[in-house]
From TrEMBL:
Protein name in the entry: Scarecrow-like protein 32
GO cellular component, one term: nucleus
Coiled coil location: none
UniProt KW Transcription regulation keyword: yes
InterPro entries in UniProt: TF_GRAS
Motif (VHIID): 153-157
Region (SAW): 367-438
Family per similarity comment: Belongs to the GRAS family.
Superkingdom of origin organism: Eukaryota
Amino acid sequence: MKAELKGTSISLQNSTTLSNTTPQNPLSGALKGCLGSLDGACIEKLLFHCASALESNDITLAQQVMWVLNNYASPLGDTNQRLTSWFLRALISRALRTCPTAMNFKGNNNTVQRRLMSVIELAGYVDLIPWHRFGFCASNNEILKAIEGFHRVHILDFSITRCMQWPTFIDALAKRPEGPPSLRITVPSCRPHVPPFVNISIQEVGQRLGNFAKFRDVPFEFNVLGNTPPILTSSELGNESISFHFESLLSLLNPSVLNLREDEALVINCQNWLRYLSDDIKGRCSPQNLSLRDAFLNIVKSLNPRIMLLVDEDCDLSAPTLTSRITTCFNHLWIPFDALETFLPKSSSQRTEFESDIGQKIENIIGFEGHQRIERLESGMQMSERMRNAGYMSLPFCDETLREVKALLDEHASGWGMKREEGWVPNDMRDHIDVDAN
C-alpha cells in the first residue's frame, strides 16, 4: 500500500543554526528546499537521515534531526504531525537504548495509557482500521465456497482479532438452503503481544460465539489449543518482556490432538498472523532446519486442509537495517492514521488510543532489533513464495468475493480501491486482492 503524503507546511524556528552546518553534513541536504516549510516528503528524508545517523553512531547528527522533527511533530495535529510524533518517539527510544550516555534529547512526551477494550470497542476498532474487515469478507466467502456439501466443518483459526470474523460467518451458515453444518472452531491459547487487547478471556469469547450460534440454530463447538494464559492487566500492556511462545504449540498441531475427523472439512484461517512467527536464523526449528514461519506453513499443510487462507498487509517491513525499512514503514502506516482522520476528530480520545496501538507497532519496527522486533511483515510476493515452497497450490477468488469486497470498499470511504495481482505463484491460478488507499 502506498499513499501520497499530505500535510500542513510549517515554519521552522532557529533554522540558521542548522543551515550553518557544513555542506558535507547530510542534514544540510535533507533540509535543502525544506527550510521555511516542512511537508511529507521532507519528513521522509529527515527520518531516513536520523536512522542513518543512529546506525553509524553519529548521535550529534541524530539529535539535530530529532530537534527539527520535534518542532513539527504533534500528537494532536494533522495526520503527518501525529504520525511523525510516534516515529520520533521510536527513534528516541532506540537512541536511548543504544547510546544512553551520549543521548540528551528527550522530545515531547506523547505517552498514552493503554487499556483493555471491551468486545464492543473491539468491533469499533475493526471497523475503523478497515483492512481487517476486507480480509474477513474475502476469507468468509472463500470458506463458504470450499465447504459446500459438507455437514461438518472445523476451522483452525490463527488471528489477532479475537474471533471477530466469525459472527458474520455463522450468520451466513444459518442461511444455507440445505441447512447449516455443525461448526467447530479451534484457536491457539497464545497470541502475539500486540494490540488489540480485550478485557475478556478467549474462553468467554467462545461462549459468546456459542450463544450467537445457538440463536442462529448452528451446531457449534469451541476449543482452545494449549494452556490458556491469564488475562493481561492494564499495567502489563506494552510490556515487551511478555513473549509470544508459539513454538510449544507446534507439537500440538497434529490430527490426534486436534481430533480431526474424516467427514469434516478442515479450514486453516491465518489472519495477520504469519508476520509474528520468527524467521530469524536463531529461531531455526530442527530437524527440518526451517524457520518457525516455514515450519508452521509445512505443519498446517500436512493436516490436509480443504482450504488454507493467508491474509495480511502487502508491505515489506522485514529488512534487516533500520534505514531500509523506515521510509516504507512511514508510508504504510500513514494509511491507518489517515483512516482515523476521516472518521474521528482530532480531539477524540478514542482516536488517540487507536493511534497509540499503531504507535506500538512503529516502536517495535523502528526501535528494536533481534528477537525483540516481532513486527516482521513481508510483501505479498515473499509470502506467496513461502507458500509455493511449502507445496501450496493457489485458487482464484470467485466473482462473488470480488463483488462483496468491492462493495465493502465503496461503503467505507472515498480513496480506497481494489486491484487484482496475477501470477505471483508460477504455473497456477493465483489471484490476489490488493486493497489500495490513495
